[in-house]
Amino acid sequence: MKKKISGDRVRWGILGVGDVCEVKSAPAMQKIANSELVAVMRRNGEKAKDYAQRHGISTWYDDAQALINDPNVNAIYIATPPIAHKDLTIEAAQSGKPVYVEKPMARTTEECQEMIAGCERADVPLYVAYYRRKLPNFEKLKSLLDEGAIGDIRLVTIEMFKTLDPDIVSNIATSTSANWRIDPDVSGGGYFFDLAAHQLDYLDYALGPIKSVVGHASNQAQKYKAADIISSSFNFENGIIGTGSWCFTVDKVAERDQMTFIGSQGRISVPFFGAPKIFLERSGTPKETFDFELPYHIQQPLIQTIVDDLLGKGVCQSTGESAIRTNWVMEEMTKNYYSAFSGS
Questions:
Q1: How far is it, in rounded angstroms, from Cα 168 to Cα 177?
Q2: Which are the contacts of 101, defined by CB distance < 8 A and separation ≥ 6?
């Protein structure tokens, strides 16, 4: 298996050491064998310095290009909001360094295509942070589906209903909010792009690619620019049919987070973002519940596969080629809203 970096150790540099890097991702880079975090960057130099000092990182920058050009860095993790993913990925690739980018991969499918092309030109791999693929509960779910625990899969449904973010409510009077996720110019498409991306990528991983999509999106509450309600039906290449409903402005009593698989011989349901449980129901047998313990650094299992891939010891399956499919599906689900929103 071909190695994808020089040397026998992955030396990470991070562009954008914000909240996701405190526990979820970056500390894992220090815990995995043959992997270390050697440099971090944030536009606010004081915050970059503070992060470096608190996490024992020797080098920090307030300029992205300086980190990209650091000769001690041989792999780059981009943990910025999606608005910066395309340009930083292409710049990092041009330096000859593999790229690991946060999800969603970018704001648009077109930006994803440019990122893939840039990495192909530079002959470097591109990985995307769809880490649920490697969590124990979702690995078990995939194995149950693969082994036919509920027979032939007929239908999958997604229900995601959340209350309005308190930060948004508190800022409505002044029409300001520091939450970049609700600005489609920065995030690509609001909370839907941030959360549904995980769900749709997992379905791509577990069931295969989606081939056709019909969607309706709107902004009912008028609290921010992004779509706040989305409904969709979609077909997989293997004939399975899916439906999804997302709303981010419901009352607390209506909150819901569930993905359900209906098969010819039973049903499996999971809280996608909630407690790591799987519920398996089949006629004639008691309902089964599977409980799991998640890793403290939630991205560590996926990052392990990236390190193994870069060192020629394994394969990471969450790549730009897989992630672009999720961006395309989300665009199809919301294009009626964003095409009108942009005036195109």
A1: 6
A2: 77, 78, 85, 89, 115, 126, 127, 128, 129
What is the Cα 299 distance to its own chain's centre?
Answer: 10
pLDDT band for position 251 (50/70/90)?
very high
Among 88, 111, 130, identify where a domain stops.
130
What are the φ/ψ torsions at residue 289 (nearest 5 degrees)?
Answer: -125, 130
> Does 162 share its domain with 265?
yes
Length of the chain counted residue by residue? 344
Residue 56's CB is within 10 A of a number of other CB atoms, namely: 8
- Asked whether residue 322 is assigned to any structural domain, the reply reads no
Q: Are 184 and 338 in contact (CB under 8 A)?
A: yes
Q: What share of the chain is helix, strand, coil (3-state, %, to 5)?
A: 40, 25, 35
Q: What is the CATH number of the domain that holds 61?
A: 3.40.50.720
**Above 60 in pLDDT, residue 343?**
no
Domain membership of residue 231 as a residue range: 136-294+327-342
Backbone angles phi, psi at 307, to 5 degrees: -60, -45
Q: Note the pTM of the prediction, 2 decimals.
A: 0.95
Residue 29 has, within 13 A of its CA and on its CB side, a CA count of 25
